[in-house]
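Input.
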Amino acid sequence: MNRIMKNYKTYTLMLLALCVSLYSQAQTDSSEVEEDVIINVGGLKVVVKEKTSETTTNEDGDTVTRNTEVIEITTTEDEDIHIEDADQQITMKDLSDLRNALKGENEEEESEPSFIDTKWNSFELGFNNLINADGKLEAEAGYEVMSVNAGNSIHFHWKIITQAMNLYKDKVRLVYGIGLDFNNYRFKNDINLSVDSGSILRADIGSINYKKNKLVTKLLTVPVLLNFKINPKKISDEYLYISAGGNFGYLLGSHQKQVWEVNGKKENKIEGDYNLEQFRVGYEVQFGYKNVVLYGKYFPKSIFKTNQGPDLRTVSAGILIGKV
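Output.
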């Protein structure tokens, strides 16, 4: 800020010097100036003194009169600036440099990044799938009936608040927040989930042809990512947006929802924990350009408790609406 103010002071003095030069030249053209011209505005005192007048004859025989002046500029800080022959030293290049410098410093001041940026109510919308311990998009042996229809398994993440902490010139930021994560796992088969007397998850084929049959989980989430802006431009959003980090979740609730038609539409919602893990930790990446950002998530631990259900891990992918 001190540098900016100092430059503004210098440019202001240059501009005043130019104005004084033009004024004194106009006075010379109209009549001889016998007394000092004094300008005192905003703490700046400008004294124009006409020192000498020299008359010469050029090659064509024309008479040329040249006035040599000294312009004294005094600020409230008692900083004196002396400009001799101001009519020769202030040029169009000086004005161009002045204009460009003022423009550049205005942009620098306006585009200075905030240390903390806050974004309320952004969203992730995509699809879920389950993979087994071998990394295949299929259920574990013994739980084949729990295969998931990924095209109908919606993932929705309401990011209530997200903040970005500027670590380095707005190019490297720490992004974190809190939100609610809703995961739908749409089953291909007409199964009913239950927990038997041995605390083992059961998936039994039912007698009803369900139009919709899914497991739904709701989690409180805290993502923590390192964000990079590749070649950011100060006056636009034309940059690559890359983030990578962890995603932490706490299970708030779960249920199985079933919809079918037998003499009219019927619906069943069965609350239960279904041996789901209470905590989950996974990886998240985001990649985008301008305002279009895609995300991917992978949770390497099974969504069900060890030895109490199948070993199935969640993968999600979709689009981020409202990046910070």
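Residues 116-321 form one domain.
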